[in-house]
DNA 3'-5' helicase
Amino acid sequence: MPPESPPASSISEDDSKSYPYLASLNAAQLKAVTASPSTPLQILAGPGSGKTRVLTSRVAYLVQKYGYKPYEITAVTFTNKAANEMRKRLRVLLGEKQADNLVLGTFHATCAKYLRRYGRHISLPNNFAIVDAEDSKKIMSGLLKAKSDIVQAMGVSLKERAVLSDISKAKAKGETPDAMAIRAARDPSSSTSTLTIIAELYGEYEEALREANSLDFDDLLVFGLKLFQTVPEVLSSCKHILVDEFQDTNITQYELMKCFANVNNGVSVVGDPDQSIYGWRSAEVENLNKMTQDYPGVRAIYLEQNYRSTGSILAAAHSVVSQDRDRIPKNLYTSHPKSTPVTLKTFSTPVIEASFIATEIKRLIAYSGGTLHYGDFAILLRYNALSRVLESALQKDSIPNRIVGGHKFFERMEIKDLLAYLQLAENPGFTPAFVRVINVPKRAIGDKSVADLIAAAKDLKVSPMELCEMVTDGDQLPAGIRPAIKRNLGNFVGVVRKLRRAADKGASVADLLRMAIEKTGYEEYLRVSQPDFDSRWENVQELISYSVVVAEEQAREAANGDLPLLDGFIPASSAAAEAAVELAIKQETEEAEKKIHPMFRRLSSSSSRSRSSSISIEEKPRKRRKVNTDRIDEEVIIEDGPKVQVADARDEADKTKLKPLSYFLQTSMLSTDTENSNAEDQANQQKVTLITVHAAKGLEWPVVFIPAGKLAGKASEPI
């Protein structure tokens, strides 16, 4: 049995003066923080054992003791919230400038950062869009609809969410559509036909994403891995990588870690196999064992003192996890007293159970003498679907409550509408955004007309947005497009163009949002169409406020530095830079001329007669912005009729960040509600929280209930 309190930390007098944060560490934490950076390290940290303190202290120690430059350290967290907390603490330990110069974020955010900078080396344009779950579902819905006859003939039942889940699992394991098809062909089970169809849908889904110049969240990891394996030099500056929540990494994330670590063999991971709860999302707890095989001499350090929970809670938790005979032995202990014992009750029905929980909440508040309030209670669910009975019981007893994980900020209609306009201004090829707002507010463009535009655009090998611009400017219409459509497209195209021009000039996102609202009449549209206008309009104002916060963050990043510039990736002189730009222009023009459709040539020609700002390939092949070869970060715009192509003169010599709009869109798409939840948290602090076990990871409440929660039709083990 471990001692009730840890042995005292042992640090030298010099170290205690140079690194005062070491004095607050216990012996195990101190070993983890001061371990040699050249030895692969596994920190096996139980819940409440101070792993965030250890991670941040180790980063600070690498910088201050071993002289690592901040940009030579990559720290990867599981959530944005954890990344923000780490950076906040590191600003205290290292100062703002050094802390903000670290490469710190989730795997997805880290990969996105490298792909924006170096994606051209794997033929990925740097203005790619990131699709969210709703956009992915809409794309898959269209693909399933096109295949409905085949699917029905095969007697197969497929739903968007299930297919996307299978695709996500495949990407997490590094499986391509072709590899999935081969697996389906070899599968002797009765589900072979289903897997074959899913493999086809996987390939078509990927094709749809590429046509829209977009990546989904899994693609950020897949393409990031492709970049690092194809051009490992882009990671040459990384001397040490630290990975949090390592037990929740999947195969692709493990390979990403290896790419970072293999540069200089510097790697520290923090994990706890007892806390692995994301197997359903392809997490591989076996990565801990795999690491010991791939990195001989791995040092394992156990953090076993719990600073968070009472003795009774630890004892109950240990009695459960100790039944797993294959687990890595680990015994948590605490100096806290046993306190209130954990209570186990059984009920004959979920309704009776829910009624007891509601009554018990009121009883505990009444007998707490004012120390407990509704906001101090949480009910942990296996699935959100289990909340109905509990909500009913709480409402019956007039207990205020909230469900976490419902409609998130960036999933709200009004937020997605405005973001879609900005996405089109940034990336005209992003079809999901086009479909969302071409008729928002109403422009008398029905679903049939939208489908006709998309079909015509595909025939002409252009994006629907680009086709709309040419239709608006030109005298001729492609087959299938009615004259009335041209009249109705005028306002839509005008709004997107104004936003694009303003964005190209570096306008703030707050101004772009206000422009989109004004030019579309979006405020009045919300007022007339939405009964809850006031709350939706507040969300719009919150989005504008959030854009200001992001702009400040971008300015701070720009001041403190970005990914380091790499030897061999920077043009040697202004002349060389100009030559590189000219070559890019020439190659892209030749490629565009090969692909251009005859109908589009006619549209381009008529467009140039009606508007001098539109450029025909035949008459005026290019117009490009002057390149600042001292910075090599300007976009070189080539209007080649069918597409507005970007000769990417930014390259690795881009010492600045993305344009304000690009930075904002990336931050928003990779964001969780944590950045926009302060007002909601204040409003909800006196409400009982209903939340899934997965969403509750890392959160704390004074009182927690865990209902039995077996969902009908679901295979689940009893709690």
Remarks:
- The mean pLDDT is 80.
- The chain is about 50% helix and 10% strand.
- The first strand starts at residue 41 and ends at 45.
- The two ends are 26 Å apart (CA to CA).
